[in-house]
Amino acid sequence: MTFKKIERKMRVIFYTGKGGSGKSVISCATALKLSELGYETLVISSDPAHTISDAFEMPVQYTPTKIAGRDRDKLWAIQVDPIREVREKYGVIQEYIVSLFKSKGLDEVLAYEIAALPNMTEFVSLLKVVEFVESSNYDVIVLDTVPSGEALKNIYLPTLLGSTAAKLIKLVAPLVNIAKVVEPIVGLPTPSKEVISEDIELIEILGRLKNIIVDREVTSLRLIANPDAFSIQNLRRTHLLANLYDINVDLAIMNKVIPEKVSDLYFKGWKNAQEKYLTEAEAAFHPLPIKKLRLFPSEVKGLRLLSELGDELFGDEDPAEVYFEGKAIKVMESNHGLEVVVPLPLPFASKYKEVCEVERAGEDLSVVISTDIGEVRNFIPLPTIAHIMKLDHAKLLNGELHIYFIDER
Q1: Which of 21, 228, 313, 338 has the smallest C-beta neighbourhood within 10 Å, fewest atoms?
Q2: Whole-structure pTM value
Q3: Does 207 lie in the same domain as 94?
Q4: Residue 69 near residue 59, CB atoms below 8 Å
Q5: Domain end point (choices 327, 348, 381)
Q6: Residue 41 · residue 139 · CB < 8 Å
């Protein structure tokens, strides 16, 4: 098969999903397809299980490793070692945090455990993205993330700290020597100039990371789920977080779908359930394009099977294209609280009549809508702030569901 590379801006593609959904395999297959198109491609894995090495059937190191094989000269892979990265690049900050805990009487072993940053593996992987984007050595970077969308919160640290955070730290720096004098009195170690310098550098890197990730022409987040209730629900939450953080989600992939030709009665129940969840996924992730990938008869490992999977998933398409740009769920502040807008599947928009029932169901909202074919119930994830507000009402407007919350604080 002959591929044609399309000239475009550098691309960063994130894959995320519940553990076991097939992120590593699809990430590797996407990267392989991109390299066959002529893109200089790097796939980054932050999975501590080292599944990327299993997928390529060769050791992948903590530095870019060339993937051997015919016509694979443009494919590289790296297995992030978060412990090594933190020690080499942010060790001074970590040592200072450890010294704070030790000054309060904590055992050194426990102090190091607590000093590990939350979501450390994901966090360090995101920082590596900045390094490789700014190196300009690659056309496309594919990131195989661990099963969580929570690391996305880290890119908003600079915003939370404010634009003056680095300047403030610089103003405090000259006071370090004075603080050393009162250190025995307050009982806490004073950060050194080196610690302050690394703090400033980390904040600046996070700022550059945010600029990369929210650039919709550069970065896309892609969702992977299996056709089951837990996997789809997990992605609904990640999808909402991405919308809140202004990260473009451009594609959803339903993986491990039992092929239609499988007629064994043993799989009848599974196939019926999958058909139900595939329909649910189309409604849950509308208007995102959704690709379906069959369950392969064996574990997908090695370049031949990865190439086959990539061809089946993308066909003659360029995986580097932006498949969708926009927000599926909009969250807007209103005069009295919050407004959440959810688009309804367009082919059925004319069938929706009215909202019959809206109630909270844990962290989600249960919505029952009357249609021409009966009542339809859907579960919609809510932003955290909505949990402390009063649900007011919901209504249908121009093919969209508008849900209103009142802030009574």
Answers
A1: 228
A2: 0.74
A3: yes
A4: no
A5: 327
A6: yes
Distances (CA, A) of 256 to 51, 147, 253, 266, 312: 17, 17, 10, 16, 13
In this structure, which long-range contacts are made by residues 379-386, counting pairs with CB atoms below 8 Å and at least 24 apart in sequence? 379/233, 379/236, 380/236, 380/329, 380/340, 380/342, 381/236, 381/237, 381/239, 381/240, 381/329, 382/240, 382/340, 383/240, 383/244, 383/331, 383/338, 383/340, 385/338, 386/338, 386/340
* Site of tokens 């992730």: 285
Same domain, 207 and 349: no
Quote the CA–CA distance of 251 and 248 in Å, as a whole number.
9
What's residue 156's pLDDT?
57
Q: Which of 32-36, 199-203, 402-406 has the lowest mean pLDDT?
A: 199-203
Give the closest residue to 385 by CA, choosing from 357, 351, 408. Answer: 408
**13 vs 392: which has the higher pLDDT:** 13
The pair of structure tokens assigned to 94 is 């970590």
Alpha carbon distance 36, 160 (integer Å): 41
β-sheet bridge partners, residue 358: 367
Say if 1 falls within a structural domain. no
Angstrom distance (rounded) from CA 271 to CA 264? 10
pLDDT, tens only, 21-50: 899 999 999 999 999 999 999 999 877 666
Q: Please name the residues in contact with 176: beta carbons below 8 A apart, sequence gap of 6 or more.
A: 190, 191, 192, 193, 196
pLDDT tens profile 89-138: 665 555 555 565 555 565 665 555 545 555 556 667 778 888 899 999 99
The last residue of one of the domains, among 327, 354, 376, is: 327
Residues 400 and 293 both lie in one domain: no
Distance from first CA to last CA of the chain, Å, rounded? Answer: 62
The DSSP string of 8-67 is -S-EEEEEEESTTSSHHHHHHHHHHHHHHTT--EEEEE--TT-HHHHHHTS---SS-EE-
Cα torsion through 99, 101, 106, 108, rounded to 10: -40
d(CA 272, CA 292): 16
Domain that holds residue 261: 6-327
Q: How far is CA 170 from CA 99, 165, 174, 281, 385, in A?
A: 22, 9, 8, 49, 33
